[in-house]
Amino acid sequence: xxxxxxxxxxxxxxxxxxxxxxxxxxxxxxxxxxxxxxxxxxxxxxxxxxxxxxxxxxxxxxxxxxxxxxxxxxxxxxxxxxxxxxxxxxxxxxxxxxxxxxxxxxxxxxxxxxxxxxxxxxxxxxxxxxxxxxxxxxxxxxxxxxxxxxxxxxxxxxxxxxxxxxxxxxxxxxxxxxxxxxxxxxxxxxxxx
Length: 193
Known about the structure:
It contains eight helices and five strands. By secondary structure, the chain is α/β, with parallel strands linked by helices. The protein starts with 17 loop residues before the first strand and ends in a 6-residue tail after the last helix. Helix 4 (129-139) packs antiparallel against helix 5 (143-150) and helix 7 runs antiparallel to helix 8. The longest helix is centred in the last third of the chain and has 12 residues, at 176-187. The chain is globular.
């Protein structure tokens, strides 16, 4: 009879693939998406190419927040769009050249977090691409990877300082409903509960 120590452990889940479309609206030197690409941390999708396999799109206009229960969908790929917040807000939608965006069925917004990047510091939800991917990885359970992704950027550690208590709340959430409750508590002034 084999001891319990000889039972093989199942292999860990592979890391969630990070897929990125760069709209080219930001200054190339300030574009965190391009820096992630140069570091080999994301795979670039051409704006004209719809991704295969039914990935999950990070969409600030989606009604549902990302939660740990979305991990099976995210394993097919997590798509981010690197475009200007100013232009996104003016248009109310993504750039026209990314026509396939409307055909991605699975969309989630990130849970509420504060930006720590210099352009949008302290603004609710206006994260840069690196912060968005790190936030998604955190919520989906890849916390070490989230930290290592942001440590490449000056001030990247500030994101985890600014959002520490909120991220700790999200870490204990599995479902969309739990995320919504954590958002309510974190941003309603009831954070001491």
